[in-house]
Write a structure and sequence with these properties.
The protein has 201 residues and is α+β, with helices and mostly antiparallel strands. Among the domains are: 2-87, Alpha-Beta Plaits; 157-201, no CATH class. 37% of the residues lie in helices and 19% in strands. It has helices spanning 22-35, 59-71, 93-105, 127-136, 144-153, 167-175, 187-192, and strands at 10-17, 42-49, 52-58, 75-80, 158-162, 180-184. The longest helix has 14 residues, at 22-35. The two termini are 33 Å apart. It catalyses: holo-[ACP] + malonyl-CoA = malonyl-[ACP] + CoA. GO terms for molecular function: [acyl-carrier-protein] S-malonyltransferase activity. Keywords: Acyltransferase, Transferase. InterPro entries: Ac_transferase_dom_sf, Acyl_transferase_dom, Acyl_Trfase/lysoPLipase, Mal-CoA-ACP_Trans/PKS_FabD.
């Protein structure tokens, strides 16, 4: 993915949203993209919660967009993220094209349980959907908040978050403070989970 932008100066920046202004930021970003200087890119890469979004693109484009959002009073603090590439924006199109042949060679089956796509924030219905959405997720916004909201609306009230960081678990705690959220970030967490993962070797 680094190869996709080897000649560009790129950036990702997290913005802390003020109040309930997520939709305002999304609408503003549509206008910002039309007014960006030629050659610059700024897109919403992640909607992590109603309190946090991440911008991705060229350095100048991301600075331009974040400055406008902050000037409008829609976001407060902006934090540069230490990443190797501007993920989940159109600068990753060449990476998506390189991934495409591998996806075509891979056999996918129709889901037997609901699997929510981070592109659509809805379950993927068919094997073809999985292949298409895995391709699209390279360049599209990660709809984390809306994906979790969809699951919550379907009755999920207990969450198991597996991975080396507690970032996603913390986001869930802020979104759904009354739910039970169990992060599995270390071997010790796995041991303490009891029967939840009793079949994990």
């Amino acid at each position: 993915m680094r190869d996709a932008v080897d000649t560009k100066e790129t950036s990702m920046k997290a913005l802390i949203i003020k109040g309930d202004r997520l939709e305002d930021i999304e609408k503003l970003m549509e206008k910002v993209q039309r007014s960006l200087p030629e050659g610059d890119v700024a897109e919403i890469a992640n909607i992590n919660s109603r309190a946090q979004v991440v911008l991705s693109g060229t350095v100048k484009g991301v600075e331009y967009a974040s400055s406008i959002i902050q000037t409008k009073g829609f976001a407060g603090r902006a934090v540069d993220l230490p990443v190797s590439a501007p993920f989940h924006c159109k600068l990753m199109e060449s990476a998506a094209e390189k991934l495409s042949p591998a996806l075509e060679r891979t056999k996918f089956s129709n889901p037997v349980i609901p699997v929510i796509s981070n592109v659509t924030a809805k379950p993927m219905g068919t094997a073809a959907d999985i292949r298409r959405l895995m391709y699209e997720q390279v360049t599209k916004t990660v709809q984390w908040q809306r994906s979790m909201r969809f699951a919550r609306e379907k009755g999920v009230g207990e969450w198991v978050v597996v991975g080396p960081s507690r970032v996603l678990a913390n986001l869930l705690k802020k979104e759904f403070p009354g739910d039970r959220i169990r992060p599995i970030a270390t071997p010790e967490d796995l041991r303490e989970s009891g029967p939840l993962f009793k079949h994990v070797a």
